[in-house]
Amino acid sequence: MANRRCIQTLTHQLYKSKLYTNPSSLHHLRTLSQIPNLPLKPFQSHRYTLSNPDFNYPLTNFTTHRYYSSDRHNSSEEDDSEFDENEEEDDEMETSSAGKKEYSPEEKESEAAAIGYKVIGQLERSDRVFKDYEPVFAVIQSGSHQCKVSNGDCIYTEKLKFCEVNDKIIINKVLMLGSKTQTMIGRPVLPEAAVHAVVEEHALDAKVIIFKKKRRKNYRRTKGHRQELTKLRITDIQGIEKPEMPTPTKKVEKAAVAA
Amino acid sequence: MSQRGVWQLQKLIVSYCNWGGSSRGVRAFMESELPSFKEANPQLEVVTELNRGQHPYLKGLYKNKNERVVSVMNMTPEEVQLCATRLRNSLGRKVVKLKTRHVTKHPSVQGTWTTSTQI
After folding, report:
1. CA distance, residue B78 to nearest chain A CA (Å)
2. Prediction pTM value
3. pLDDT digits (tens, 9 = 90+) for A84-106
């Protein structure tokens, strides 16, 4: 009886939460019902069809008592909205592959973006974003790494989730701005400064082999590791007066052709 | 990957076998996820090749004439899609350890510091 009650409360919880729209959990519950009954359980006549769950009536007569560790994960993951991301922009689509966290609501993504000091702009479509070099620099923070950037240079950061290739990014956390004549130091961040960048690639770094050995103790371990990186191209720095260029030379830039 | 807005991956060749068991994942990927992948990347030319008796692989041809071959033997369709996405997201550059994480042509704005610089 206790087993049935547990499953009942578990399924109640699942249905009451948003997971009832999640097909994976429904499938999981369907598999629960498909498990053959134990000979000890007498109730076999009243079988609830999980394909059309009726939320008003209590679910009874679950004759299986299999507990899966993935149940608790599924029901509790929705509540924990903690992200360990330190990286700004980046990362591919919100593919919830291999049972990873699902950032289905876009609010969560924007929250993570705020944590990761980024705002996702729009994809580029024939925008003239790539300007000539301007003698202005900014000190940017992406996650735990800080960098001095200028217009037109490339930065490799840790993989930024929620960004795709060819995305426009705005980096909020700017610690210092400088030009030829002026320097602005933030305490610790400059409030109205923004740095625009474009995500160029998401790639894996070269493999590093982590080799551990303890001599004369018969202990040897080899592990390969490839770090996921994001390449950003800085396009614009805002928040400081830029000196006017004396003779602007027109460069023929490659047309931003996005299919 | 796109450098200055230009996609670097030109062609993706999906080579599979219609008999072997190692191609099972690729065959499922071709039925389920390849059409959506093609639509999501219209600039990409995706070709499927039948290669009987061989293990399956994904071959990416980049604009810098670089070829990247990734074996997808015994992989699930989701893993194959991840591989294909990775190929699409990357430059064709050689996979070597990065010298610097910051590539710039103009390292100094206010002048490089020397011991005789006065603020």
Report:
1. 7
2. 0.66
3. 343 444 443 433 344 456 666 67
Helices assigned H by DSSP within chain A: 2-16, 23-34, 69-77, 106-115
| B48: number of Cβ within 10 Å | 13
Chain B, 4-23: which have a CB under 8 Å from a chain A CB?
4-8
Residues of B with Cβ-Cβ distance to A150 under 8 angstroms: 104, 106, 109
Phi-psi label, residue A90: left if phi above 0, alpha if psi -120 to 50, beta otherwise: left
Nearest chain A CA: its distance from B80 CA (Å): 12
Q: Are the CB atoms for A41 and A1 separated by under 8 Å?
A: no
Distances (CA, A) of B112 to A7, A140, A226: 68, 19, 34
Question: Strands (DSSP E) along A143-182, which ranges?
Answer: 145-150, 154-158, 167-171, 174-179
Q: How far separated are the first and last CA of chain A, in Å rounded?
A: 60
User: pLDDT tens-digit profile of A133-147?
Assistant: 888 999 998 888 899
This model of the complex carries an ipTM of 0.88
Residue B1 in contact with partner chain A when CB distance is under 8 A: yes
Give the closest residue to A254 by CA, choosing from A233, A237, A239, A227: A233
CB A110 within 8 A of CB A83: no
Q: Measure CB to CB from residue A202 to each of B89, B96, B106 and give the nearest one.
A: B89
**Helix, strand or coil for residue B16?**
strand
Quote the tokens at residue B108: 């100094």
Q: What are the chain B neighbours of A233 within 8 Å (beta carbons)?
A: 4
